[in-house]
């Protein structure tokens, strides 16, 4: 990792591990510890927001430059990166998480019991930045988390189907972001850095039903870009046959503010209308929604939502 990238990440409160690993407190960690207000994934899937370790094995390694992404796009120097070993990566992430939450202990608003639990994460969100399927020991890392009693949510852009097909251990829940209904819009909005990215994404979606784990398709929706097109999204979702679908509105935060405007952020009402139309086409239902996160959860009636039941 080059020094400019490292300095930029550290200014944004990332704790960098080796050349490519990183951990950073989620916004919802503070909300849970101070206000007992959980993230939508706690309400939807039963994870504990304050015990969630938001991390990545590939913080500066991504093969897309999505316009809506809140992450920093100026990363260079990752060719030939030395990736941390799974044991080092997890151990250091937990250590850094404990340091990051230590400051909450002195806040009189912080629930002391939740703070103690926050120092012992039991859920790993492999999603912070970069594309995690480019990490060569991803399956081993997920296996290590599993052995330690931790659930894992892996978020991928679907660009490396071979990596998913060859995972030695599947995550508890696998997210694939599908942010466009067709190839042309995909290439303009997600800005892939290699040819055949759309074909790879379609291959990933065809692969999903065979992976034997919970799967979620996330549609990140941006005003005047990809909001609408329900019939096209329904066709794509019909290929993947996910357990759940999360239409989620783009939020004007982070480095995305250099590429988009606040008008690109859809209202929750718009996301809800899109979700209702998509649900009707797919024969599924609106199971949950969270207005402050501009997200709706679609799935079959009586679907098992909680990952720890």
Descriptive account of the structure:
By secondary structure, the protein is of the alpha/beta class. The protein has a single domain, classed as TIM Barrel, CATH 3.20.20. The chain contains 11 helices and 10 strands. Strands 1-2-3-4-5-6-7-8-10-9 form a 10-stranded mixed sheet, sandwiched between helices. Strand 1 and strand 2 (21-23) form a beta hairpin. The longest helix is centred in the N-terminal third of the chain and has 17 residues, at 86-102. The radius of gyration is 19 Å and the shape is globular. The mean pLDDT is 94.
Topology summary:
Elements: H1 3-11, E1 15-17, E2 21-23, H2 27-35, H3 40-45, E3 52-56, H4 86-102, H5 112-118, E4 123-126, H6 138-147, E5 151-156, H7 161-165, E6 173-177, H8 183-190, H9 197-207, E7 214-221, H10 230-240, E8 244-249, H11 268-282, E9 285-290, E10 295-299
Descriptors for this entry?
309 residues, alpha/beta, TIM Barrel, ten-stranded mixed β-sheet
Low-confidence stretches: none
The gross shape turns out to be: globular
Series of H and E elements: HEEHHEHHEHEHEHHEHEHEE
**Quick one: CATH superfamily?**
Aldolase class I
Give the strand order, joined by hyphens, for the main sheet: 1-2-3-4-5-6-7-8-10-9
Biggest sheet architecture: 10 strands, mixed
- CATH domain class: Alpha Beta
Count of the domains: 1
Count of distinct strands:
10
Q: What is the end-to-end distance?
A: 40 Å
Instruction: Round the Cα radius of gyration to an integer and report it.
Output: 19 Å
Beta-strand content estimate: 15-25%
| CATH architecture annotation | Alpha-Beta Barrel
